[in-house]
Structures are given as C-alpha cells and as structure tokens.
Amino acid sequence: MVFAAKKADVPNFGKKLVSVNGQEILLINLKGEIYACENECPHQGSPLVAGVVKDGPTLSCPRHGYKFNLKTGACLDFPEYTLKVYPVRLEGDDILVELG
Ligand code: FES
Q: What's the pTM?
C-alpha cells in the first residue's frame, strides 16, 4: 500500500485528486469513510472529480449521470461499464491505497 494523502485533506462529502506513482487517483470522503477510484469515467472519460457523491455509496458522472458503486465499481445503470476502485487503508491520518 502506498501513501495517497492525509485524511484531513479530504473534506467530508468532498473529493481530492492526487497523483500516486504517476497515476491519478480520486479520493472521496463519505461520512468519514474513504474511497479511492480512477478519475476517468469508464463510459467516455469524463473527469469524475466533478461527480456527485451520495450514500450508497455512489459517485455519479457529471457528463451523462451514470452512477457507480464506490465499493465495487459496478455501474448501476449500464453493467457493461466498471469503474476501477482501489482498496484503502487508514493509518492514523494517512490514507494508503493499493494500486495493484
Ligand atoms: S462520460 Fe461518464 S457517464 Fe458518460
């Protein structure tokens, strides 16, 4: 696992785009739970940093509104699309991600 950011840098219901080992990773804080995923929508590549986060937990793409489950990456609207999600671990205030 590699360090991605400090938890304090990702506000509740907020997002933070970081670069980890040259890869863009989108971090999301939903009520203290941290999720990590790719920033590029698997549909047509829209940046998901502008997406809407809701309980579920889901992230909706700002372009066509496809919703993705932040735990599994599954698209709730069109199952042929899958968002790449990364395992997250918290160590104190450090957010670590597994890039695989
Ligand atoms: S580009 Fe994301 S839903 Fe179409």
A: 0.95
